[in-house]
Amino acid sequence: MKLSKLAAGVFALWPLCAQASGDADTARRFGLIGVWALDCAQPATAYNPYETFAIARDGTIVQSLDSLSIEASDHLHGLSLAGDKLSVKWDSATSKTTLDIVLRKDNGKLQSWSSARPDGTVIVRDGKSVHTGNPMPLFGKCPKR
Q1: Greatest pairwise CA separation for the chain in angstroms
Q2: pTM of the predicted model, to two decimals?
Q3: 33-84 residue pLDDT tens
Q4: Is 95 helix (H, G, I), strand (E, B) or coil?
């Protein structure tokens, strides 16, 4: 029995669709979907960026950044949840960068807990910038705008 080209395509893409669906479910469970900012009462600026996490039509997770100086649209995949932490693979088409990131929720606030490049370079460790030693900012979830 021969498979039609459509059926063969569906079988070939099924793992990708299942992963996207799983990522969307994980993002929803974590509470990631929505708009986050340092101060939701203030407009987006370089010092108060708005980060929006959404589920695209194909089920993938997209992140957009609005800081009035930078606008970017990136993709998250490979999401896994462990308590108050969400591990993601982050791919930026804008900066051509891939990172392994762990986001942490602390009293409803979102913080970058760890971040590393594929070559092992660590950018964030235990919620602090490796470069400066400063804590990573805490983003609050904004009401719908």
Answers
A1: 63
A2: 0.79
A3: 999 999 999 999 989 999 999 999 888 899 888 876 555 678 889 999 999 9
A4: coil
